[in-house]
Amino acid sequence: MSIWKKLFGGGAAPQPAAEAIEYEGFRIIPQPMSEDGGFRICAIIEAEVDGDTRTHRLIRADVIRDADEAREASVAKAKQMIDQQGAGIFS
């Protein structure tokens, strides 16, 4: 990839906005990131904590070739993180 594409974007088409998934009082929004030849696992995790909306961006090193599989894997990793840490992910 050329330096101009890295600086100004281009190449891969943007992914359509994903619907939020409710899980254990949290909202998970899968947002796989386009990588060379695949999609990096990424999701936004949100929850109401003490009346404020808290947000955590989950980014994993895993890269998956298929966009749909990457969305599913992003949701699965976010659920795993919620199960393990609960509201502690916002600390």
How would you characterize the overall build of this protein?
- With 91 residues, this protein is of the alpha+beta class.
- The protein has a single domain (14-90), classed as Double Stranded RNA Binding Domain (2-Layer Sandwich), CATH 3.30.160.350.
- Helix content is 27%, strand content 40%.
- It has helices spanning 3-8, 67-85, and strands at 21-23, 26-30, 33-35, 38-49, 52-64.
- Strands 1, 2, 3, 4 and 5 form a five-stranded antiparallel sheet that branches.
- The radius of gyration is 14 Å and the shape is elongated.
- The model has no long low-confidence stretch (mean pLDDT 87).
- This is Transcriptional activator HlyU.
- InterPro entries: Transcription_activator_HlyU (IPR018772).
Low-confidence stretches: none
Q: Average pLDDT across residues? A: 87
User: What would the principal axes of the Cα set say about the shape?
Assistant: elongated
Order of secondary-structure elements: HEEEEEH
Domain count: 1
Secondary structure topology:
Layout: H1 3-8, E1 21-23, E2 26-30, E3 33-35, E4 38-49, E5 52-64, H2 67-85
Antiparallel strand pairs: 1-2, 2-4, 3-4, 4-5
Give a concise summary.
By secondary structure, this protein is of the alpha+beta class. The chain is 27% helix and 40% strand. It contains two helices and five strands; from the N terminus they run H-E-E-E-E-E-H.
